[in-house]
UniProtKB/TrEMBL annotation, chains A, B, C:
Gene (UniProt): thiM
Primary enzyme class: transferase
HAMAP family: Thz_kinase
Keywords: ATP-binding, Kinase, Magnesium, Metal-binding, Nucleotide-binding, Thiamine biosynthesis, Transferase
GO biological process, one term: thiamine diphosphate biosynthetic process
The reaction(s) this protein catalyses: 5-(2-hydroxyethyl)-4-methylthiazole + ATP = 4-methyl-5-(2-phosphooxyethyl)-thiazole + ADP + H(+)
InterPro entries recorded: Hyethyz_kinase (IPR000417), Ribokinase-like (IPR029056)
Organism: Methanolobus sediminis
Protein name (database record): Hydroxyethylthiazole kinase
Amino acid sequence: MKNPLESIRESKPLVHHITNWVTIYDCANITRAFGALPIMAHAPEECADMTGISTVFVLNIGTLTTELIDAMILSAKAANEKNMPVVLDAVGVGATKFRDEMAAKILDSVRVDIIKGNYSEIAKLAGENAITRGVEATSIEADPRKVAKEFAKARSCVVVMTGAEDIISDGERTFVVKNGHELMGSIVGTGCMAASIIGSFAGVNSDLCEAAKDALCYFGIAGQLAAEKSAGPGTFKMYLYDEVYNLSDERAQSMMNFEEQ
Amino acid sequence: MKNPLESIRESKPLVHHITNWVTIYDCANITRAFGALPIMAHAPEECADMTGISTVFVLNIGTLTTELIDAMILSAKAANEKNMPVVLDAVGVGATKFRDEMAAKILDSVRVDIIKGNYSEIAKLAGENAITRGVEATSIEADPRKVAKEFAKARSCVVVMTGAEDIISDGERTFVVKNGHELMGSIVGTGCMAASIIGSFAGVNSDLCEAAKDALCYFGIAGQLAAEKSAGPGTFKMYLYDEVYNLSDERAQSMMNFEEQ
Amino acid sequence: MKNPLESIRESKPLVHHITNWVTIYDCANITRAFGALPIMAHAPEECADMTGISTVFVLNIGTLTTELIDAMILSAKAANEKNMPVVLDAVGVGATKFRDEMAAKILDSVRVDIIKGNYSEIAKLAGENAITRGVEATSIEADPRKVAKEFAKARSCVVVMTGAEDIISDGERTFVVKNGHELMGSIVGTGCMAASIIGSFAGVNSDLCEAAKDALCYFGIAGQLAAEKSAGPGTFKMYLYDEVYNLSDERAQSMMNFEEQ
């Protein structure tokens, strides 16, 4: 897709989130900064209706409870019925048995179109040997590119593994995104924000593998531009929002740094 | 009222909120920046007691659940008994049936002194034809000034409709506030913050229509001053807090831009 | 301890929080800025497991519910079994009967190693005459240094009273920390952040009294450095994160300002 940002700003996709209580503000605010419209709603009485008027559904299990998981499944079913993209951010899978079980419950109950996590979260979901330290990735034994590709093929979906290099695969194509800056790891929430951004790009591009790749390139580029001006995580986070807001497709296209394999 | 900011900073009204999980931090932080004291507490076992020691009660249904609505009604009843101002931010009314019903339940159960929302939220509450897209206003058919005035008269309260122009009416007087800057719409939460600020001003001024008008003028002025220095939503949000904190009644009075009709 | 920051950055203690919904992001983000790893998880099905893989457990009753209190007790018991430090931030004790009861329930059910609060919160916990205005301290009759020391001795724990001067006592030693800046009180959340930082320092120093003293000195120093560049609470909060991130043990040691009594 040539101009994803322009498309987002024009069509303003409504991105329904059921997410965690730590980064919920930044999930909403980065969605808005990219030009999409965030909506957060998790009451079981309305969540499926809210999904029904939305363009994309993003779910994030960072501070999951059984009630939230039930609401996520209600909303994801509504999204499935409308053939609307569903993005799962599998935060903390591999840290506790409960998270592993709840993530499995989601994947068994509904169709998820894009599964995102860090290296150990995705490896664990894919059945590899992996432990997540809280919400922090640990090193995994398997080759991450192979894990992403095979898991994507097995589930017929797009798999996104975030880390120093981001890996995106739909089982056929595999992209390795090299945009980004280490300061992105110095603040809490960039992973969650990435899922919201992937959702925003998926709201305007039916090629979900490309949408995820573009989203991570663009976000990484904004991070690179912000880092140039920043003296630490405080200034970095502020400039990150400015750079996202002021980014153009033209500038982003000239800075994209990824490989297709 | 001549010096609302000075009054807030002197008497430090305690503004009890039961609000949403997206903007709860900014609701608290902007209340503090204006000089009032925020308190957030929603447990049914204590919420009415917390209202009982407060000056104003602000409720916001952004991420409502039935449990939160019950807590809001408990607290609003305690506020009603003390003749304390109650401010309702009707976030997302018009987006789902559940929101419409819960807002109606609040309005049927307790006295709300100031009802705030964007154009389509208030129009929907007032029985007009209106749909809210998530939490985003859509254009409404009716004349917003007329909607605000008639709804205020019908409910004997102050109605605040926020948008490019903010409309405040108590059924007799109608103010149109023109302060503000478009960057305020580039970040999530300025609407919720506005309700907290209206609550803070209502904590020192028994003329609630004037309090709401002053609150929106002052907030808009801080937004204008912040926008002058800002390169995007990141820098804007940071400077907004500085400008609120450093604002004086004298400076604000010289920049107020509103009409009375 | 000579180099607490270096130790935190090297060993990256995992700091499990069950905290409030207002400042949860800043609790996580300041933990990360100091070099530790935050994890927030409160579901009863997993919270004890999450504590089990952590280094420290921090609990904060700012927006308590009975469900959250139950989860806190589950996690604190897991922490007690592992002899892991437990830090309690007694937010709002003295404001409502429910808070007083829930804080007492925690202290009766589990071992808390560090109890933190403002002057009136700790005075109330210690059985003194004290009222908290929402979450704001009010002046107390008793000598705060004496309250801290005697309460610490009675409970065989470390007591931290935050205010213009921070008082830390284990019943034998009493430290009075004079680092800090008044702008720290201009933003919401510095108290909650302080508990997270104390937790991070407690994750690398078994002398918990010293850990708490060092944590408050270092945080206060970052506040002083940030204040030099700041024009208000917006810029201050941003620079605070930068200063924490860029602080070195060497610089901090040269600026520490405390008395031992």
